[in-house]
Amino acid sequence: MALQYIGLDDINGSLVVLDHVKDAHYDEMVELQLENGTTRSGRIVQVEGERVVIQVFEGTNALSLKNTRTRLLGHPMELPVSMEMLGRVFSGAGKPIDGMGEIYAEESKDINGQPLNPVARVYPRNYINTGISSIDALMTLIRGQKLPIFSGSGLPHNQLAVQIVKQAQIADKNQGFAVVFAAMGVTNDVANYFRKSFEEAGIMDHVVMFLNLANDPIIERILTPRCALTAAEYLAFEKNYHVLVIYTDVTSYCEAIREFSSSKGEIPSRKGYPGYLYSDLASLYERAGISADAKGSVTQIPILTMPNNDITHPVPDLTGYITEGQISLSPELNQKGIFPPVDVLPSLSRLMKDGIGEGYTRKDHQDVANQLFAAYAHVQEVRSLTSVIGEDELSATDKKFMEFGRLFEEYFLNQGFEANRSIEETLDLGWNLLSVLPRNALDRVDDKVLDQFYDHDKAVRSFNLQEDGVIKELQEAVK
């Protein structure tokens, strides 16, 4: 028979304190019964001897110090899982909110997950196609990778997230593929935008959604990514699906951690965040991977907004240490009307080299990626020089690079919200752009590869260039 504790010792915000509790465990779930007979859920967040601190999910309003009855449930928070989760929408705490009733659960799983044995981890190979040229060609997403998106205030990261969910796919259509999408601390408008976009695109049959709104309790915001990753691990490691997990916004999650830490009276670290923020984020990010015991994989794209676009802020700073690269969004490209505004030069995928090339994408993938990076980097140098001496004083080769930079941004980066490019289309477009440049300027590619793919005449026709290299469209715009 389970023990019930009558009365509370203290109430502080969403926290309650209970004394003389034996055999309590950190993260254990509890049930609190109010005087009127209603019940609320809580979680033990601190244990000091026989004194425990409980965070109440639904808040502490109307709780009585004398008559509240508390019962320890003897297990951590668990998420009911089954294949019925596909196509469903849940709250941040894993409760169905789509009006379709409860799911029939095959089992319930601890939302904190089970750590992957390092020996059982399989090195990530192969790629996930997002249909977005800048990502697929230059910072390829590899199965089992964690590749965050660094965004800023006012940048279209929500639209980019929707586009990735709509277009993401794996090369082998015979293998199961699913997307787990989690939103944390979003407004009703944004939540409705996500739901409506996925439903209109007709992709809900392979999507599981978790939505935590801005007015929901902060404890639910802390649970949201854990519930999402638990669903992903179930699909990947028990049902052999390749699962892409996208969750936004990690900064909202970290602010909830900071508020929660402050309410417990913990000593703050950088910018008020707790000292354990690094390990807390690692407990999420490190749940990506591939296990030798299963055929599936968990790949993560966490999205975070950098306050004041400061990449040294604790959230992007710590995220960069844990993850395997980043996709950065550019305010300058966004102002030019380019979508998606991916800032190529500070973006990278550290696992890209092991999941592209012959047998995965195409044998020339690494060559075209290296040369595009090098050429666009030189474009930035030429633009800096132009601001000093003017474009008329540039050499003929540098003028070609300026032309390449305009075309690269207009045709390669700026593909729009609806365009879904295959990896072949992306790589062919990359070669078309490189062929605008003089052949002797392409110093990152072997001559044999250039012989096969370099075609200046085709580039002139593709981009409607005149012999002197001036774009007709630009001339007409000036007139």
UniProtKB/TrEMBL annotation:
Task: Supply the Pfam families for this chain.
Answer: ATP-synt_ab, ATP-synt_ab_N, ATP-synt_VA_C
Q: Which residues form a coiled coil?
A: none
The segment(s) forming the ATP synthase A/B type C-terminal domain are: 354-454
Annotated InterPro entries: ATP-synt_VA_C, ATPase_a/bsu_AS, ATPase_F1/V1/A1_a/bsu_N, ATPase_F1/V1/A1_a/bsu_nucl-bd, P-loop_NTPase, V-ATPase_su_B/beta
- Listed GO MF terms: ATP binding; proton-transporting ATP synthase activity, rotational mechanism; proton-transporting ATPase activity, rotational mechanism
Q: Which residues cross the membrane?
A: none
- What is an annotated GO biological process for this record, any one? vacuolar acidification
Please list the residue ranges annotated as the ATPase F1/V1/A1 complex alpha/beta subunit nucleotide-binding domain.
131-349
- Ranges of residues in domain ATPase F1/V1/A1 complex alpha/beta subunit N-terminal: 11-64
Q: Sorted alphabetically, which keywords does the UniProt record give?
A: ATP synthesis, Hydrogen ion transport, Ion transport, Transport
Role description: Produces ATP from ADP in the presence of a proton gradient across the membrane. The V-type beta chain is a regulatory subunit.
Describe the family membership recorded for this protein in Swiss-Prot or TrEMBL: Belongs to the ATPase alpha/beta chains family.
Name the chain's protein: V-type ATP synthase beta chain
Originating gene:
atpB
